[in-house]
Write a structure and sequence with these properties.
Radius of gyration of chain A: 23 Å
Shape of chain C: elongated
Shape of chain A: globular
Oligomer: heterotrimer
Number of domains of chain A: 1
Number of helices of chain A: 14
Helix content of chain A: 55-70%
Radius of gyration of chain C: 17 Å
Number of strands of chain C: 0
Number of domains of chain C: 1
Order of helices and strands of chain C: HHH
Helix content of chain C: over 70%
Strand content of chain A: under 5%
Strand content of chain C: under 5%
CATH architecture of chain C: Orthogonal Bundle
Largest interface: B-C, 83 and 71 residues
Chains: A mainly alpha, B mainly alpha, C mainly alpha
Number of helices of chain C: 3
CATH class of chain C: Mainly Alpha
Distance between the termini of chain A: 41 Å
Order of helices and strands of chain A: HHHEEHHHHEHEHHHHHH
Chain lengths: 385, 166, 102
């Protein structure tokens, strides 16, 4: 069990850090270019081989590493050095509770594709997210700059405001699934319910009618709680400080806001932290709302049982594992694309609009959602008794 | 392993507590030491099989309360002011150290009998489910009163910190 | 757990409480005094949770949770008071707010 956890952790690290972060710069450039009807960055090449602009992340890294690392006078040196790390590390360690796949028995080893299957999985992400506030807040203070301080105040107010909405929007989902563990949520989202089953329960249709059993929908989070999906996405994007919520970074107002005094790789670390957080948001949303690593209408247990006579038990589990990881990554990529779409479509919100959205719109809606979900659970329990 | 973790977290907690009290240069240093202290205490809670309390410690204390402290320090732009008034007198530090040491040793002598081994607790001890069940069945009145208290606190904070509209 | 017992946790809690009490008594900066009060509350929490583990009951943890709620409210209201105090007097030295002293 311990060895498989190490391999999963190494796999996550390699995938997340080494693959996603530079690819995200390329995705941002090319997707925005496609959306704005232009070509995007395509000048970097190795030996004349342009690779659709994929050499640019490498050029970016070389540029950032070789830039001069300036520390302004009067700055708090320890904080100036440590703030990028405080901003990036929470984004990376949030991956520890997100499952890439289920549990499989292969060659005598019990492999669980989740680094830390904590009992309070989702709350861990929220707690780590509240630590991430410090990275951005201390960055502006450490730079001894007026614009930086303004950016710090804005960012801390924005992030702690949306933490409230973040926690409450998903309480409805916790009530329905009855668990905080993301692995259990993924397993529960494999079940299906009959769309027209209520007709049978209410007595409109005779019991045992055939066609009702054919129309089934997987119990994905987005089916059970459609509005909280978008509220959660909004709150997470506001936590991530990406457009349209990037008033702290307001490029046209306060000249890069809270990371105004950072150059070179420290600035690169902030950018990388933001993009890794985009991946974390997508992974979290996939695990909770879009069924995680499961294919709709194809539960994993029967699939492995069906493949075992053909491939043998080990290979069947391996095939299922590879398939699960691929399905998860496809869903994550779709959500990353969606977030980039939002980022490049909407103009930046004004600061009071951001606060308005967090306190006056998301919070009452999420509280109303809790009440409605509770009523819904009671009604369903009564009707299906 | 757990013993090593206990010593690491304890030294971190006590050391950063000293940093909170002894940071004469700037309240920002005190606030950051407070964060380290909170996180070390959260680690100690997890060692004590209190997972939910440790998590809430990180989420509420380290993640919101100290952020509020830092926010106020930044808003009021409180730069370091050195030792103000009576803080600069070394006799105070000497008296303080003696009193603290004395109190701790007296407490240690009183509690010397508390070295009993811990009872085995079942796996659900301190998990979210256990605390949640207890909170909403046995202690539901406390939860409701806490809610009213929080509401009163919110209203009070908004009224007190508002600028007067002349 | 090894050779660490409840005794050790109580000593840690006592130390942190003593340090916090010293901070309240000796420091003159309002914000640092307030942070020392938070340290004392945390030490009490640690003591509660440690006893809860020794007895095997989770009542200590629930009380610790309530203490955290009260501490959160107290910090919010206290910082609001500090903000208005600093705005009116332009000083964080608590010895400057002694008009009602005899």
């Amino acid at each position: 069990m311990a060895t498989s956890t190490v391999w999963v952790a190494i796999f996550l690290f390699a995938l997340v850090l080494l693959a996603f972060a530079p690819i995200m710069t390329w995705v941002e450039r090319k997707q925005s270019a496609l959306m704005q009807d232009r070509i995007g960055a395509n000048r970097a090449s190795i030996l004349g081989f342009k690779a659709l602009g994929l050499i640019h992340p490498l050029a970016d890294v070389i540029k950032m590493i070789t830039k001069e690392d300036t520390v302004p006078t009067g700055a708090h040196r320890l904080l100036h050095f440590a703030s990028p790390f405080i901003a990036v590390v929470p984004a990376i360690i949030s991956f520890a509770v997100i499952p890439y796949g289920g549990t499989y028995e292969m060659w005598g080893a019990h492999v669980s594709l989740c680094v830390a299957d904590l009992d309070y999985g989702v709350l861990y992400v929220f707690a780590i997210g509240s630590i991430a506030t410090y990275g951005s807040m201390l960055a502006g203070w450490a730079g001894n700059n007026n614009f930086g301080m303004l950016g710090s105040i804005r960012v801390s107010a924005q992030m702690i405001s949306y933490e409230v909405a973040l926690g409450i929007t998903v309480v409805g989902l916790f009530m329905i699934f009855g668990t905080l563990k993301l692995t259990e949520m993924g397993v529960m989202q494999q079940e299906t319910f009959r769309l027209f089953g209520f007709l049978e329960h209410l007595g409109f249709v005779a019991h045992g009618t055939g066609w009702i059993d054919w129309v089934t929908i997987p119990m994905w989070g987005i089916v059970l709680q459609p509005l909280p999906f978008f509220m959660f996405l909004t709150a997470l994007m506001a936590e991530n400080k990406r457009a349209p919520f990037d008033t702290p970074e307001g490029e046209s107002e306060i000249v890069a806001g809270y990371f105004i005094e950072y150059s070179g790789m420290k600035f690169g670390l902030y950018m990388m932290g933001e993009w890794i957080e985009v991946v974390v948001i997508s992974a979290l949303l996939t695990a909770m709302f879009l069924g995680g690593w499961t294919i709709p209408w194809l539960p994993e247990g029967p699939m492995i049982a069906a493949l075992t006579p053909v491939l043998g038990e080990n290979m069947a589990n391996l095939a299922a594992m590879v398939l699960a990881v691929h399905v998860f990554l496809i869903k994550v990529v779709i959500l990353i694309w969606f977030q980039m779409l939002i980022r490049w479509s909407m103009p930046r919100f004004r600061y009071d609009q951001v606060m308005n959205l967090g306190w006056k719109i998301l919070l009452p809606l999420s509280l109303a959602n809790i009440v409605i979900t509770a009523l819904g659970i009671l009604i369903v329990q009564e009707v299906t008794r | 392993m757990r013993t090593a973790l206990f010593w690491i977290f304890s030294v971190m907690a006590v050391g950063s507590a000293l940093g909170v009290v002894g940071s004469l240069r700037s309240p920002m240093n005190s606030a950051l030491s407070l964060v380290v202290s909170m996180l070390a205490l959260a680690g100690l809670y997890v060692l004590l099989e209190a997972q939910f309390v440790g998590l809430i410690q990180v989420m509420v204390y380290a993640g919101a309360i100290v952020v509020l402290f830092l926010f106020v320090i930044m808003l009021l732009n409180l730069r370091g002011s050195g030792a103000v008034g009576a803080e600069s007198q070394p006799i105070m530090k000497a008296i303080g150290a003696i009193v603290a040491a004395g109190a701790t040793f007296w407490l240690a002598r009183t509690l010397a009998s508390a070295r009993a081994p811990w009872p085995d607790v079942d796996e659900g001890f301190g998990t979210t489910r256990a605390i949640g069940e207890a909170l909403y069945t046995d202690y539901v009145l406390s939860v409701q009163v806490a809610g009213v208290l929080l509401l009163a606190g919110i209203v009070a904070a908004v009224v007190l910190a508002k600028k007067k509209i002349d | 757990m090894g050779d660490v017992s409840g005794f050790h946790f109580q000593i840690v809690a006592a130390l942190i409480f003593a340090i916090g009490a010293l901070g309240v008594l000796l420091r003159r900066n309002i914000i640092v005094m307030f942070m020392s009060i938070e340290l004392m509350l945390n030490a009490a929490n640690l003591s509660l949770v440690s006893f809860s583990r020794e007895i095997g009951n989770d009542q200590g943890q629930i009380l610790a949770f309530m203490v955290m709620v009260v501490a959160a409210v107290e910090v919010a209201v206290g910082l609001a008071i500090i903000i208005s105090l600093v705005r009116n007097r332009d000083t964080v030295n608590i010895e400057d707010a002694s008009q009602m002293k005899w």
